[in-house]
Amino acid sequence: MENKINEQTGAAFTISKNQYLKIIDPKGGQVSDLVFFSEKDKKEKISAGKTMDFEESILITKGNYLWSNRGRKLMEVIEDTNGRNDILLAPCSPETFQIMYEVETYHPSCFENLYKNLAPFGISPDDVPTAFNVFMNVQFSEEGKLSVLPPTSKAGDYLIVKALDDLIIGLTACSAEDSNGGTFKPIHYEILNSI
Ligand SMILES: [Zn+2]
Question: Cα(153)–Cα(57) distance, rounded to whole angstroms?
Answer without folding.
Answer: 21
